[in-house]
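Input sequence (605 aa), recorded before submission:
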Amino acid sequence: MAPGADEKSGRRDGTDADSLLLAQAEDRKVEDELEAAGFIKAPDGGYGWAIVAASFFANLCVDGVIFTVGTILTPLWKTKYGCGDTEVSIAFSLLAGSYLLIGPVASAFANTYGCRPVTIVGALIAFFGFVLSTASPSIYLTWIAFGLIGGIGFGLVYLPSLVIVSHYFDSKRAMATGIAVCGSGIGTIIFAWLNTVVIDIIKSMVSIETDISSIFMCFVAVVALLCVIPGVLYKPLELQKEQLDQVTKIVQDYEANQSRKNSLLSPEDGLRADGMRFDAHRPFLSTLELNAQKKGQGQQMWSQRDLAAAVAKESLAELNRPLSRADIFYPGSTAALNERSRATSNPNQHAINPIEGIGASNIFLSKIAIDQVEEYYETTKTSWHANLIHTLSSMMDVSLLKRPSFLILAFSGFLTLSCFYVPYLYLGNEMDRVGTYSDKDKSTPIKVLGIINIVARIGCGYIADRPQADALLVSSVALTLAGVSTIVVPFLTAYWQFIAYCLPFALGAACFAALRTVVCAELFGLEKLSSAFGVLLMFMGVGATVGSPIAAAISDLTGSFDFSFYVMGALMALSGIILFPLRRLAVRENEKEEKEMAALENNDL
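Predicted structure, token format:
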């Protein structure tokens, strides 16, 4: 080729590159405007406080039942069904385990149908399971009715109650979430007292021992049914007409400008309405354009305001689903998370920055939302279950298991939940070893666990919004101390010592429960938080399912719960110890990923 031709080709390539950069800059500007206008803003107050109160009540009922009914029902069911501690413990472990294992499914339902209907249905399912258990002729049917069905129902109440608070609050989220989850501690206190009152009333009215548990389960069923009330109050946030008008105008102006310039973008640069792929870097524009294409409309439709508004409304509804926000499971503000990432990273290492590339609206689309929209537009038809299945598969992103740091965190969650419910169920048995105590006396440590849980949850809310506080270190230390103190339980010889034991154990349990999503966001990034939380729930659910039966089986073999507390305490201490090197390991993994990506980019050049 002649030198002159080469020179012209070089100038043309340079001009094309400049045009491409200008087009990308314009797209970014419009995308920022669409984010600012199109995301439904959290009101940070107003009706949101009614949502907080409703979530508080839901947590009060659900955790109040899960944490306290075991001490009442265990001796009653052993008498009624003529079985041992192991068989009875399976019913409670299934309740606690399925409550967690159903979490990703509950999230998928909430994302597809909304928090209100899912919570109401969950309350009705739990009510049905508990009522069914009153007529159960065997412990095996009780496993299904009380444990499995009741746990699934409670799980469908729990996750939407967590999500809805985050939807209504952003800058005040730490305070709102802290108040809502304090319902767990308040519920433990109330039901530890109320259960003994109810059972005393039942015993005074009923002389047949086997009927006492059935009547008590009717009381538990009514408590579950009360969770319909917060479900009714979970009003979804609505897109305002002003927002819709603003988004429609922004896109109309953008498309008119594109038509005038008659610009063409390369496939790797973005998606035009004539049939390229979804671009995660411009999700609003891509979604709007693809929605138009999906309806058989072209770029010309944006000049027709009614059609444009209809497409914009459908697109914004898709992008404003509950799990579309990457920070939906984060208990504090994303601004605090950004500062925390820098504050807790070693200055000599690469920072783990989970919220790099923040948009104008300061709100992220989660990986679930981006993948879901992309898949939605790759298919010619959609069905009610398509979004459900996709959300579930995204929350169960098993690729995270390829990271050793996540495997360690998940295994820690499994170990923690294996021990989590053991003191609630069997601390009373250890108290019988040192003296004769009434049900009321045995309920006092459970109340203390609830009180400390409240204080610790408030403290963890403070930590979540304080960048200088190391959430991973706090969790590690708290879990280790909780485990060591549990090992010491068989050596306790006085009532006050059992009360004192509640302090370290409740602190460890509360720190783990309140800070787990903070740790996930720090280590694996905000965009992977929903997926990490979903997989973590599965590990925790399995731990909750097997932990109590193992402790009971050890007791059946040895004749006391001493060795059960040794084993479970050691497992909980181990769950904290293995977390200490986790941050350094995660940083190394991120450095390795950065080097691999850099190498791939160099190979492409």
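Checked by second reader. The chain has a mean pLDDT of 80.
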